[in-house]
Amino acid sequence: MPEIARKPRLAQSASRPVPEACVTRLSWYMRELHLLQLRGVRFVSSRWLAKHLGLTDAQVRRDLSYFGQFGTSGRGYEVIRLHERLRSILGVSGRTWNLALAGVGNLGSALLAHEGFRERGFRFRVAVDADPGKIGERIQEITVASAARLPQLTRSHSIDIGVIAVPALAAQKVCKQMVQGGVRAILNFAPVRLEAPENVRVRTVDLAMELESLTFHLVRGAG
Amino acid sequence: MPEIARKPRLAQSASRPVPEACVTRLSWYMRELHLLQLRGVRFVSSRWLAKHLGLTDAQVRRDLSYFGQFGTSGRGYEVIRLHERLRSILGVSGRTWNLALAGVGNLGSALLAHEGFRERGFRFRVAVDADPGKIGERIQEITVASAARLPQLTRSHSIDIGVIAVPALAAQKVCKQMVQGGVRAILNFAPVRLEAPENVRVRTVDLAMELESLTFHLVRGAG
DNA sequence: CACTGTGAATGCATTCACAGCG
DNA sequence: CGCTGTGAATGCATTCACAGTG
């Protein structure tokens, strides 16, 4: 039966395996749409977004198509609507996510104060440190608690995401405590791979590693 | 001419298009090898590395094979030798990279103090801020200078990599000044896409975006 | 007409599977 | 043997190219 199979015309928009790189780009689109919205622009084309983000227009359309159909033929995408839809897809629409910080050192303190988190719907509710000298200190409306209390505090404050900014050697222990406390995801700044149950999502940001990926390219092609 | 083209049998080990994801993994291997070295382990197999880093053994071997042949059949890789070789590939062997920081706010100060940078061969030589109140302040052996002096300071200190920790609206301007000063790469913490000449490598780390990629997964499958 | 949404084609990255070596 | 190094196979992600739509 070598006939051309009839189009299944399935009620797509359901579930396709969304590439991880696409998820990252959703945030880019959101940022750009937010700016357009502030500037009062009402419609934007995939071509325009692509140009401003260093992508191809096909890529933009493909990325969005994983989640449904938002565009209007001949006009493009309605800025406000798409922006709101992306916020909802990324889970940052109409809610706040609770964070717990472990490690109130230089980096930890900076994260507590980071405006970008608050602006985008993330709020620290808990901060702990192993150094007794820091306990009781108030930073950004949060009182630093003892590291030993991390599991209980995590649970009692309904923490969604744990943020780890402790030395490498202490990170795995802290990770375990956060998992005990019921976090569903962890953002880790310690330079180690963390072991966690697979229903807990872990993302590691190793700052020195970011620099190493730059130097790799610098020592190769001088261009 | 539907013949099978003859194998070119090129003198490999030269240049193959190294996947960007592989570059990231080289840093992981380095970290792991460093630990093994401290523990006095002399040989390690691709299997062992893979297990500890959440990869497959084939992946490890393939990654390393982009840069030559380091292993011994039946024994694995000599820890010290491979570690040193990776340091050299990533450009962090026997040299220090000079950094300039723009933006001495919470995040900027934390980066200046970040031990991980120093340990892995990165050293801040210059720090500037737009706030006159901060100029002259000393942080970690560095005196904060006026933002206006960024291009000259970048050049006079032979800065290799610029680090941007200023608000989004100021980032593009700072980027341009760093390029003027002759940096070859930029690590950007401002939540904007930077425009730079293509011979200047830019890497952006948007902290809130890291959280968004976590929440995306949290709001979808509960698992 | 300008633009979206998407099958099909292409191009990368990962994995398989095994020849070859110490 | 055990383990590397690597062609070939597979599996993903991106791009092409165009039918379809307001």
Structure, described:
The first copy, chain A, is α/β, with parallel strands linked by helices and 223 residues long. Chain A is 42% helix and 18% strand. Chain A is built from 9 helices and 10 strands. The first copy, chain A, has helices at residues 20-38, 46-53, 57-65, 79-89, 106-113, 115-119, 150-156, 168-180, 207-219; strands spanning 43-44, 71-72, 76-78, 97-102, 122-129, 138-139, 142-146, 161-164, 185-188, 201-204. A 7-stranded mixed β-sheet of chain A has the order 6-7-5-4-8-9-10. In chain A, strands 1-3-2 form a 3-stranded antiparallel β-sheet. In chain A, β2 (71-72) and β3 form a beta hairpin. In chain A, α7 (150-156) crosses α8 (168-180). Residues 1-14 of chain A have low confidence and may be disordered. Chains A and B meet through α1, α5, α6 and α9 of A and α1, α5, α6 and α9 of B. Chain A binds a DNA duplex (22 and 22 nucleotides) through α3 and β2.
Give structural attributes.
DNA-binding, 223 residues, homodimer, seven-stranded mixed β-sheet, 9 helices, three-stranded antiparallel β-sheet, alpha/beta
Helix/strand structural class of chain A:
alpha/beta
Quaternary structure: homodimer
Find the biggest chain interface: A-B, 57 and 56 residues
What do the pLDDT scores of chain A average to? Answer: 93
| Gross geometry of chain A | globular
Low-confidence stretches of chain A: 1-14
Task: Name the beta content range of chain A.
Answer: 15-25%
Distance between the termini of chain A: 56 Å
Largest sheet of chain A: 7 strands, mixed
Write down the Rg of chain A: 22 Å
User: How many strand units of chain A?
Assistant: 10
Note the run of SSEs of chain A as H and E.
Answer: HEHHEEHEHHEEEHEHEEH
In what order do the strands lie side by side in the largest sheet of chain A?
Answer: 6-7-5-4-8-9-10
Provide a count of the helices of chain A.
9
Portion of residues within helices of chain A: 40-55%
